[in-house]
Design a protein that fits this description.
Length: 295
């Protein structure tokens, strides 16, 4: 299997180099140690993902850039170029329980129980770049779905060489009634226009978030909180490098890709998103990804 190329920080180790890469409306702004630099025009997300050593490339781009101010967080683009977005499913116990419940009346619940404990994970194509929503822009509800929820996920950046070199926040929108009706409808439940969001930045580092790293989500309706939940990276059942290994085992990604790693925060069955809702997803060290919902 592909080596992951990144691992959680261990106590006593020196702090790893971290560069946050922001996609602004007219280029790329990098952040390191609280300082900001505008990258040269030849530094792009595609160039970063195909680099032999993306961490070194990001550090060099910061050093070679020109001084910049803090990026306008209301005008960010999604942090990707030509990268596909893939996703892993049923990696948290909470996700397994929810998937089994939504499918119990159609005979599909057993599939989710078995994949949770199987050696081979559930992996599926989630989005192409043109479907991905930027921070602050709307995500969509399918018109033929009555039950849609956001899924907050640690999302890994994988280079063209199959190695993890960073991470961001992902929102994997899911039409639970469509998937629950029949597991074969998964592509329709998951893949449609503006079905995912990434951001607010890409954190480039040789170290991944540790198991205690918090992932949280809040959904607001007319300004009031209607759902809030929290989990940690350590509750993901499978090693992150193993998920990447399975994804790259018999496939190649010439432009690199992103991999959403599953969700451990699932709203109650009576809840569905509505037009105008605001979704806030936060991961320590990355920031907060905010998107509105439209019909």
């Amino acid at each position: 299997m592909t080596e992951p190329g990144a691992s959680p920080v261990q106590r006593g180790e020196p702090a790893p180099a971290v560069v946050r890469v922001h996609a602004v409306h007219d280029g790329v702004v990098l952040e390191r140690g609280g300082a900001f630099a505008r990258a040269r025009r030849d530094f792009t997300f595609d160039a970063l993902f195909v680099s032999d050593d993306p961490v070194t490339a990001a550090i060099a781009a910061f050093a070679q850039g020109s001084a910049a101010s803090t990026p306008d967080l209301t005008r960010l683009r999604a942090p990707l170029g030509s990268q596909e977005v893939w996703a892993a499913g049923v990696t948290y116990l909470r996700s397994r329980t929810a998937r089994m419940a939504e499918s119990e009346h159609t005979g599909g619940g057993d599939f989710y129980d078995r994949v949770y404990d199987a050696e081979r994970p559930e992996l599926f194509f989630k989005s192409s770049p043109h479907r991905v929503a930027a921070p602050g822009t709307p995500l969509r509800l399918r018109r033929d779905s009555r039950w849609t929820v956001p899924e907050p996920e640690l999302t890994l950046a994988i280079s063209a060489h199959g190695r993890i070199f960073g991470y961001t926040i992902g929102n994997d929108m899911s039409s639970r009634d469509i998937e629950g009706e029949n597991p074969l409808y998964l592509p329709q439940a998951k893949v449609y226009h503006r079905n995912a969001a990434l951001g607010p930045c890409l954190v480039v580092s040789r170290r991944l978030p540790g198991p205690a790293t918090a992932i949280s989500m809040e959904i607001r309706r007319h300004g009031a909180c209607v759902f809030a939940g929290e989990t940690t990276v350590g509750r993901i059942k499978r090693p992150l490098g193993s998920l990447v290994g399975w994804l790259c085992r018999e496939d190649r990604f010439p432009s690199g890709c992103y991999l959403m790693t599953g969700t451990g925060i699932v709203p109650p069955d009576a809840f569905t998103l509505q037009q105008g809702d605001e979704v806030f997803i936060a991961i320590e060290g990355v920031g907060t990804l905010v998107n509105t919902i439209e019909g």
